[in-house]
Amino acid sequence: MARKDNAADAANAGRLKQIALTYKMTRKADKMIGLVLAAVGIGTLGVFLAIGFLIGHPVYLGILGLLLAFLATAIVFGRRAERAAFGQMEGQPGAAAAVLDNIGRGWTTTPAVAMNRSQDVVHRAVGKAGIVLVAEGNPNRVKSLLAAEKKKMNRVVADVPVHDIIVGNGEGLVELKKLRTTMLKLPRVLPGPQVTATNDRLRAMGDLLSNMPLPKGPMPKGMKLPKGGPKGR
């Protein structure tokens, strides 16, 4: 029993520490967060207390108002924290991959399936909506990356729909903060077993590419084998 109590106390302490850390991070980007949360909490409680006094039940309405004030404050805090996090992530390399990793159950994500010298990158997510290719970088440059990756997908899994999304701000682009919502709105057309089969085929394709033998023939001039590469017998 004591162990359970200690575990519960540790979990609560961890949760409070996480909330405090999130608040500090949010406050760096949102200086008004403290005043906004106070206004929401006090305002909600004040409204219910006023109604309670009007109808003659200030205690009951006060308790209800306190609970709803806490709930309203938590909702506002969550939204502003999320907005601040996206603001800090936007424009950073790999930001889209971080969003994909937290998209939720039912999705399998593979970061950086394609990349060019300018560090424009394409990530892949597989779920009941099919295959979603998410690109981040220069919109004009990533189009060729997306086209090449879609062509590859069509050869391997021709029976699965392939969607493409370019993350950014502008016409035809999807803002980072709207990426998760956009993907969750895609129509679900694949049953669970087909999603699993698709992931298996893509995984096998990756294994085949990684294990592909070097082409025979003379080595191009100036090209060197990487350290640790195969040596002649």
> What portion of residues is helical?
55-70%
Question: Which structural class is indicated by helix and strand composition?
Answer: alpha+beta
**How many β-strands, per DSSP?**
4
Strand content: 5-15%
Rg, rounded, reads 26 Å
* Overall pLDDT: 78
Order of helices and strands: HHHHEEEHEHH
Count of DSSP-assigned helices: 7
User: What kind of sheet is the major sheet?
Assistant: 4 strands, mixed
- Termini separation comes to 66 Å
Characterization of this structure:
The chain has two domains: 1-89, no CATH class; 95-211, no CATH class. The relative contact order is 0.08. The chain has 233 residues and is of the alpha+beta class. α1 packs across α3 and α2 (33-55) packs antiparallel against α3. The chain has helices at 2-29, 33-55, 58-89, 95-101, 139-156, 179-184, 192-210, and strands spanning 108-115, 121-127, 130-136, 162-167. The chain contains seven helices and four strands. The longest helix is centred in the N-terminal third of the chain and has 32 residues, at 58-89. It starts with a helix and ends in a 23-residue tail after the last helix.
State the main characteristics.
233 residues; alpha+beta; 2 domains; 7 helices; 4 strands; 57% helix; 12% strand; elongated; disordered C terminus
Explain the layout of strands and helices.
Elements: H1 2-29, H2 33-55, H3 58-89, H4 95-101, E1 108-115, E2 121-127, E3 130-136, H5 139-156, E4 162-167, H6 179-184, H7 192-210
Give me a quick take on this structure.
The chain is an alpha+beta fold and 233 residues long.
